[in-house]
Design goal:
GO terms for molecular function: nucleic acid binding. InterPro entries: DUF4817, RNaseH_sf. It is a single chain. This protein is mainly α and 228 residues long. The protein has 8 helices and 3 strands. It has a 3-stranded antiparallel sheet, with no helix packed on it. Helix 2 crosses helix 3.
């Protein structure tokens, strides 16, 4: 393609030919036989570019190169926005990030993956109230002393737990499957209007299972005695 100096020469020849593009193309080819010879309408394009944009027309590939650079700048800006937003709002979802920044969920996911950011899920722990920490430390200290004095101390502890099962229990769809060569439109009843349930108590002592014991109502000391 022509350089800027060559484009200036084309414009001068175009002026000599009184803006006749075909004559300008022939004269330019005769005067500069070793150069690139553009089609006649290229001379018109040079003049039009100077009048409309104040500059010479870009060479072939310059527009694509500029577009790639612009896309790169936009991508870098989007990446910085995503990382900054995640830094300030680490619990945001990909969909929320996409809506807030204005890019697709797929691009958000690529940016997060590129920067090695992973969705960390929370661990469910017991809610503590003031004073629980001190009581836990006191119990641990007492427990370690007992275990030191009596290595078989754990054998004499009765580990117990109780739970209530209802007909509206939690159903995990990931653990339910129905294999078939067609969709059976399988359903499972839940959220019953009439709720019933039962309470179960189990214990573990010296490796032996105690129970299970089924009972109605709240577990009280009297019901503990009834188990025996």
């Amino acid at each position: 393609m022509a350089s800027n100096n060559e484009k200036v020469d084309m414009l001068l020849v175009y002026g000599e030919c009184r803006r006749n593009s075909r004559n300008a193309a022939r004269l330019y080819a005769e005067r500069y036989p070793e150069r690139y010879h553009p089609p006649h309408n290229y001379f018109v394009r040079i003049e039009s570019s100077l009048r409309n944009s104040g500059g010479l027309p870009a060479r072939r590939g310059d527009n694509q190169r500029n577009q790639r650079q612009l896309i790169g700048q936009v991508n870098e800006q989007n990446e910085l926005q995503v990382l900054a937003y995640v830094q300030l709002n680490p619990r945001s979802s990909i969909r929320h990030l996409s809506n807030e920044i204005g890019i697709s969920c797929k691009k958000v996911q690529k940016i997060l993956k590129k920067n090695e950011l992973h969705p960390c899920r929370p661990d469910l722990v017991q809610k503590l109230v003031p004073g629980d920490s001190n009581r836990k430390l006191t119990f641990i200290t007492w427990f370690m002393i007992q275990l030191h004095d009596e290595p078989d101390f754990l054998r004499f502890i009765c580990w117990t737990d109780e739970s209530k099962f209802t007909n509206n229990g939690i159903i995990n769809k990931q653990n339910n499957r129905y294999w078939a060569d067609h969709n059976p439109y399988w359903t499972t009843d839940t959220n019953h209007q009439t709720v019933w349930g039962t309470n179960v108590w189990c214990g573990l002592l010296d490796g032996r299972l105690l129970g299970p014991y089924f009972y109605d109502g709240t577990l009280t000391g009297r019901r503990y005695l009834e188990f025996t």
